[in-house]
Amino acid sequence: MNKIQTRLAAVPAFVLATAGAAHAAVPDEVTTALTDMKADGVAVAGLVLVAIIAVFAFKFMRKGL
Fold first, then answer.
1. Distance of CA 54 to CAs 41, 44, 50, 59, Å?
2. Dist. CA 57–CA 37, nearest whole Å
3. In angstroms, rounded to a whole number, what is the distance separating the alpha carbons of residues 45 and 49?
4. 27-51 pLDDT per residue, tens
């Protein structure tokens, strides 16, 4: 039983030890591309939101409420 507890305690320690080594420098081109994609995504999300509001406004007007 003690052997199992030791192994179970070693798993989180191993995960924490290996997770720290996974950080690497990201090239500037990747950062720039991600920033551009974020701006494009916000623009598309805004257009979708406006379209949804327009559809609901049209439905609301058709009901005559």
1. 20, 15, 6, 9
2. 30
3. 6
4. 889 889 999 999 999 999 999 999 9
